[in-house]
Amino acid sequence: MIDVRDLDVRLGGMAVLDSVSTSIGEGRFVGLVGPNGAGKSTLLRAIGAVLKPDAGTVLLGDEDVHDLPSRAASRRVATVPQDTSLSFDFDVREVVAMGRTPYRSRFRSSADPAGEETVERALSRTETEAFAERSIGAVSGGERQRVVLARALAQETPILLLDEPTASLDINHQIRTLELVRDLADDGKTVIAAIHDLNLAAHYCDELLLLSKGAIVDSGSPEDVLTESNLTRAFDARAVVSRHPVTGAVYVTALPERTGDREGRVHVIGGGGTVSRLLYVLSAAGYEVSVGALGTGDSDLETARLLGLDTVIVEPFAPIDAETRTRVSERIARADVTVLGDIEVGSGNLANLECALASDALVVVEDRPFEERNYAGADARALYEAVIGRGTVVEGSEVFGAVEEAMDRSS
Ligand SMILES: Nc1ncnc2c1ncn2[C@@H]1O[C@H](COP(=O)(O)OP(=O)(O)OP(=O)(O)O)[C@@H](O)[C@H]1O
């Protein structure tokens, strides 16, 4: 159990950690996340006894790590720092063997019988044995990072602190390293790792600790911590949180800032990917965009989610009920311009079309001739005819310009 209590650290006259408290249970893999300069490295250094806090304690069980002699502390906590500058005079195996220092007697060189085997196991687990004889100066940055992890494993401590363990690793080694760290935690090691990639952190960690400006914003399961409001608070960024389609883990997508200076509301009716690009362009231009009704599972819906748009959702193939119809109508009434994408005029879209008829500024995208569309019967065809009679009909490539013109007219 690691118990951090009221930790204050001041560096260069600035408060870098401000009354940080947290408890981390044995065998947990905790991800430290937060923006640059939040204090993640500083917290790891304070927990690892590399840096003495100005106030507060770091208890390992009932002992304060800062009161332990350095050899004793090194048997409890191993640290993999962010900058792994090493003397080039050593080969890789010798660097890993340095992890055994806390177990070596100062008087007898043969006092660490388990050491050799431990070093070989650490080399093997980090897949560094292939270049174990090479000078540490002759390996790549990513390989060096794995060597330093191997050195920390050779230290055989119950606690492992990692500062950006995957920062210079290729995608394959990022995954392999985090899988290894996950296994270490499952075997009982307590791991705290600063990880920039929120999605990797969400996938591998049991808990996340979100730091910003030297204080903990939130802590708990990845689902609880990675919320859109927490991300805005900590990173000052727009982000959408969804589930990864394959792993099911929480998945964060950072959104581009709305760079455009356009003002006004646009409601978009689409479906089946017909308006995904338009949603992106309108949103990036600065317009407030709403969309729907869209069926769950629709690819336009996924885009709308990723862009964080106001979306009316219906069950796929279900008729649009009165409540949904009201929600669509409200958005069309609020919008300065409504856009109808190049959609099929099937039964699922009839209510959307009826709502669109109420729009005063309607832009209709027609990339296919009227005759080539699929209609759910003569009524549907008549309804669609009424809609295009009411709107400005444009090709897909002209739609953005048409929205701007309609916006000017409506203001
Ligand atoms: N020796 C120092 N003197 C003065 N300020 C420092 C010192 N070391 C760090 N800081 C400041 O403390 C703050 C926290 O730094 P820290 O390295 O802990 O952040 P971090 O969350 O790990 O950032 P990053 O994600 O960029 O690695 C930063 O604003 C940094 O500039």
TrEMBL record:
InterPro entries the UniProt entry points to: AAA+_ATPase, ABC_transporter-like_ATP-bd, ABC_transporter-like_CS, P-loop_NTPase
Start and end residues of each ABC transporter domain: 2-238
Record keywords, A-Z: ATP-binding, Nucleotide-binding, Translocase, Transport
Enzymatic reactions: an R-cob(III)alamin(out) + ATP + H2O = an R-cob(III)alamin(in) + ADP + phosphate + H(+)
The keyword Flavoprotein appears for this protein: no
Enzyme class: translocase
One Pfam family matching this protein: ABC_tran
Enzyme Commission numbers on file: 7.6.2.8
Subunit structure as annotated in this protein's UniProt entry: The complex is composed of two ATP-binding proteins (BtuD), two transmembrane proteins (BtuC) and a solute-binding protein (BtuF).
Function (record text): Required for corrinoid utilization. Probably part of the ABC transporter complex BtuCDF involved in cobalamin (vitamin B12) import. Probably responsible for energy coupling to the transport system.
NCBIfam families: PRK13548.1 (NF010068)
Protein name: Cobalamin import ATP-binding protein BtuD
Naturally occurring in which organism (per UniProt): Halalkalicoccus jeotgali (strain DSM 18796 / CECT 7217 / JCM 14584 / KCTC 4019 / B3)
